[in-house]
Amino acid sequence: MFRRTFWFTAGAAAGVWATTKVNRKLKQLTPESLAAQAANKAVETGHRLKDFALDVRAGMVQREAELGEALGLDAAPADDRDRELPPPRRRAALDPTARPTTTYSIPTISYNRNEDH
C-alpha cells in the first residue's frame, strides 16, 4: 500500500512540475515576451557597442599620444590651427577650355518591330 501511495505521489509531483515548466515556456514564447526579450537584447548589444567604441577611442588617443611622443610632435600652435587651406589647384585635364571642340554623334537604331525592313 505504501508503495502505491509513494508512486502515486511521485507521479503527481512530476506532473505538476512538468505542467509548471511547460506553462513557463509557453509564457516565454508569447509575442509580447519575445518582443521584450528582443528589445532587451538590442539594448544590451547597444551598450556593448558603445563600450567598444569608447575603448577604441581611448586606445586611439593613447596611440596618437605615443606616436606623437615618438616622432617628437607636439600639439599644433593656435596660429597653425587658424591658418586657411591653400586654394585648390586645377589640373589641365579638368580645365574646361582644354576640352576638344569636336562633337560625336551616336547613330540611332529603330527597334520598332512594325517597321518595314
Automatic annotation (TrEMBL):
Residues 94-103 have a biased composition (Low complexity). It comes from the Bacteria. Residues 71-117 are annotated as: Disordered. InterPro entries: DUF6167. Residues 78-87 have a biased composition (Basic and acidic residues). Residues 104-117 have a biased composition (Polar residues). This is DUF6167 family protein. It comes from Streptomyces exfoliatus.
